[in-house]
Write a structure and sequence with these properties.
By secondary structure, the chain is an alpha/beta fold. It folds into two domains: 227 residues, no CATH class; 123 residues, no CATH class. The chain contains 16 helices and seven strands. Strands 3-7-5-6-4 form a five-stranded mixed sheet. Strands 1-2 form a two-stranded antiparallel sheet. Helix 7 packs parallel to helix 11. The longest helix has 21 residues. The radius of gyration is 25 Å and the shape is elongated. The N terminus is likely disordered.
């Protein structure tokens, strides 16, 4: 199934995530978690809500009916937890239920909208009769724990399959939850870089972490492209997982490369960065004469950011007109248009668009130090 990415002006195409036998390991353990234990773990921060950019959205009426179900001993769905390497647990499904329970036990709301226990309407936890307080705290939830020794790829797959409530999280929102650490925090800092924001034409990061994923793509493809094979989603997952907490030197090196690259792109391309437009700023047209979307295209971001990062000398505003002209010429080619719009994770398509931007810079008189395997391998790309 091809997914339309309205925020990003491209289609991903089919990009199946293959799971060879060594990557299929998943270990789960069901157990009963008492409300008392759940609230204790919440207070101790042993039980956490991952950084998934999903707010608590239940109103007090819905939360109250959950509490009513617990008091009445009505079964409720299980919660799913990830075990972390430091023996903590992250809630991956059941966030609203966990927060509703802890909020009530902490006397944060009065019961309302009850259907059976009318006598408890308007009552906070500490005002419940002692019997009901003890009974509620002793009630158990069925919890399913995905163990720490499960393969990271399967953890991502489980999270994605359980992600069915409300607005489904996209891939970067899932990564933000699963691969927390210094690198993830750095992505959230770099999205505010002034030159980057100037290129995108917005003063603040766009919704759904699409800008954080752009920066991740830059780092991952810059390092992995010579040996890259799809699927791209898997490569981005692995890159974030393997570099969760790198050295300060590693972070500083990449921060400097990114900021320098964005500064140079903003100097030369300005508001024409990463967009399918001609040298006059007009939308390019496809082979049928239909105007192409002029919003930010993340596949073109890949190509332009990598090409500019390999430039051997700082750019001058004087080269702006020439570079924009050469890039417009490259984007008018059907091969390049396909490479930034269709099946963009394909190796050949990535190389087509990256080398098209490299050629545009070279034709403008700008030397680029492309990693040797790419120049040598381009003609033989699969």
């Amino acid at each position: 199934m091809r997914e339309r990415l309205d925020d990003l002006e491209e289609t991903e195409g089919d990009e199946p995530l293959d799971f060879p036998p060594p990557e299929r390991k998943i270990s789960t353990q069901p157990y009963d978690l008492s409300i008392q234990t759940l609230t204790d773990q919440w207070e101790e921060k042993t039980l956490e809500i991952p950084e998934i950019q999903r707010e608590y959205v239940w109103d007090n009426g819905r939360a109250s009916r959950l509490i009513e179900s617990l008091i009445l001993n009505i079964p409720i769905p299980p919660v799913y937890l990830f075990e972390t390497k430091d023996a903590k647990f992250e809630v991956i499904d059941g966030h609203q239920r966990v927060r509703s329970i802890t909020r009530y036990i902490n006397n944060e709301f009065r019961l309302s909208g009850l259907r059976v226990l009318d006598e408890f309407k308007g009552v906070r936890f500490f005002k419940l009769p002692a019997r009901e307080q003890r009974f509620l705290k002793s009630r158990s939830l069925r919890a399913v724990v995905i163990s720490h020794d499960s393969h990271p790829s399967m953890k991502f797959e489980v999270f994605e399959r359980l992600n069915t409530g409300g607005i489904s999280l996209n891939a970067q929102e899932l990564r933000n939850s699963l691969y927390r650490g210094a690198f993830n925090r750095e992505l959230r800092v770099l999205v505010k870089d002034k030159s980057f924001r100037k290129c995108l034409g917005t003063t603040a990061p766009r919704r759904r972490m699409v800008d954080e994923e752009l920066i991740l793509r830059f780092f991952a493809l810059r390092e992995l492209l010579p040996a890259y094979r799809p699927p791209l989603k898997r490569k981005l997952n692995d890159y974030m997982d393997q570099n969760r907490n790198p050295s300060q030197e590693w972070l500083e090196e990449r921060r400097e490369v990114f900021r320098r690259t964005m500064e140079e792109i903003s100097t030369v391309l300005g508001n024409q960065s990463f967009r399918l437009i001609d040298s006059q700023g007009n939308p390019l047209r496809d082979k049928n004469g239909k105007p192409l979307p002029r919003g930010v295209n993340r596949a073109l971001f890949d190509a332009q950011s990598l090409a500019f990062s390999w430039a051997e000398k700082p750019f001058s505003p004087n080269v702006r007109k020439v570079v924009i002209g050469r890039i417009s010429d490259a984007l008018s080619e059907e091969t390049t248009q396909n490479a930034v719009r269709l099946a963009t994770g394909d190796r050949r398509r990535i190389l087509d668009r990256v080398m098209a931007m490299v050629s545009a810079l070279r034709e403008s008189g700008i030397d680029t130090s492309v990693p040797e395997p790419l120049d040598a391998d381009y003609g033989n790309a699969e």
